[in-house]
Fold this sequence. Notes:
Layout: E1 7-11, E2 16-18, E3 25-31, E4 36-39, E5 44-45, E6 49-51, E7 56-58, E8 63-66, E9 70-72, E10 77-79, E11 83-86, E12 90-95, E13 100-103, E14 105-108, E15 113-116, E16 124-127, E17 131-133, E18 138-141, E19 146-148, E20 152-154, E21 159-161, E22 166-169, E23 175-179, E24 182-184, E25 187-190, E26 195-200, E27 208-210, E28 215-224, E29 228-230, E30 233-242, E31 247-248
Amino acid sequence: PSTSNTIDIVSYGASATIGGSIIPVLNSITCKSASNTTALVSLDIKKNVTIETNAIFNDGNLHHIVQGNWTETGTGQRTGTGTINFSGIVSEIKATDNTTIAFQNVICSGIGSTTFASNTANNTFQISGDFSVLDSKEVMLLDDPLLVAGNFLVESLAKFGGSAATTTFNGTLDQNIDVSGDVLFGNLAFSGASLKTVIGNLKTTGTATINVTSTVAGIGSHEFANTLTVNGTCNFSGDITMKGGNITSTNTNLLFA
């Protein structure tokens, strides 16, 4: 399609592709049940992406811009190792069933808000690569867990709010967790046999847990509203303020840097 047009794409095919010599500007994409759609070029989607049950959208290992909502129903899923950039003023990411919404890399950019929504289902949001909140974007995580295996970045003018949800940094490779912006986690957890380096100050409305095999380090002033559990290694330098709860551990010795 020409960049001067915006169209709706509804994919029914078992081996459909979306390509072109330039970046197509689309209104929306709907991957119908049992379809398999692969992007052969980066896409600029002005509104929504819907992946119906038993459908697959393969991102083609490319960078795609989505300004509207991202909805997965049933066993619908995205595959590939690309990046989805949510750049709209209002975006909502949700599933309609008790399932996992999986991304490789996610960017939330521009102005406005992006919400990882519950929609009453027990969802899990999983990011296998990096998660970046840029510009003045505000990201809201409601009551479903978020897993991030790569680097995490919230720029200085951006916001991230965890509400009552748990955010877990579970990478098996070393992770940088840059909370330079306005970041307030609900519950916070670290897992995976790797080093998690915190840049900035951690703050929670709930608990914080460092699981066995994880090492968490960094210089900052951290504030936890409830219990801090250290079953791995805590190499924080700076201050820890406990607003409630206790500091617990299964380690024989508990040392803070």
